[in-house]
Amino acid sequence: IAEGEPGEGREPFELPRFWDALGQTFQVTSQEATKLSLAFSRPPLPSAEDCQKLSEDVQNAVLAVATVYYWLPKGQGTTLRKMVRDATTEVVEGMIQLTDTILNAPVESLSQEQLISTGGVWEACEQVSNLPRGEYNQAAVVSALAACLGVVKDAVEEMEHALVEGQDPYGDIMEDEELGFRGNRDTYWSEADRQLLSSCMGLMKASKACLKKVLAAVKAHGKADSPEQIAQLDDLADIANEISPSVDELALSMYPPVNPLAVRLNAAKLASVLKKVLEIAKASHVCPPSEEGWVQFLTSAVDHNMNKVKNFTQDQL
């Protein structure tokens, strides 16, 4: 499941039928996990015949989950497929863990590990109800972009909080005796640092704005009526996934002691990703002429802040 690729089925693919079947197989797997766990929750142990029946039922349930996942053709979009694959993998891994726990647990009583593992399978099986089921790949891409936006929002808020004038960025985690005098240059931002970091904050805020705008455009205009539209949505989700790690790397390099060249390098990486997102959005069907204004505005904002970072670090080269 983790590495295999579903093929294009011979029969016409019906999304409602797929969701119904996936929901049913996840539910059956959850029930089989409960039966298996109960059978081994107290002595006496099930007979050899009962063990055979239990293991066959578990195996059939897991194979049914995998089979339904393989119904989902590539043409429905890689973002949707990845979400379904991750959910399916989690169910299978949960069942493996539960089986291992039962095999290694003492027979006398229901172990804490067994309870946790059983709950883990239930939780994994319930995930099917959270999978995005809107118009094919469009709902999956909306979900992926919203998740990216949440992470970036948190990073921006955290850095804004740390940068409050006069605040010690390490005040909550470092003690005087650990580091010596609190005026230690390694734990404070200089005025020059703060000037550089304000431009970096500009880039981080542009990242948040970029994801918000792309998400709104996909909600408003995103379609999955043709292979080309599905592929464009997947491209947007793929490149948007690069924003959050790039924001994190930049934020980490902004803490003192500041190395201006490291900050410049990470800022340039983030700016490059943002420009790519904006280019892909502009060239796609989610960006009709009515959306081009914010694309141009955000492109200018990224260039403006990146140029300021370059100016502040020029003497370091």
UniProtKB/TrEMBL annotation:
Pfam families: GCIP_C, GCIP_N. Residues 175-279 form the Cyclin-D1-binding protein 1-like C-terminal domain. Keywords: Cell cycle, Cytoplasm, Nucleus. The keyword Cell cycle applies. The keyword Cytoplasm applies. One of its GO terms (cellular component) is nucleus. InterPro entries: GCIP-like, GCIP-like_N, GCIP_C. It is found in: Cytoplasm; Nucleus. Its main location: cytoplasm. Residues 22-163 form the Cyclin-D1-binding protein 1-like N-terminal domain. It comes from the Eukaryota. Belongs to the CCNDBP1 family. This is CCDB1 protein. It comes from Sylvietta virens (Green crombec).
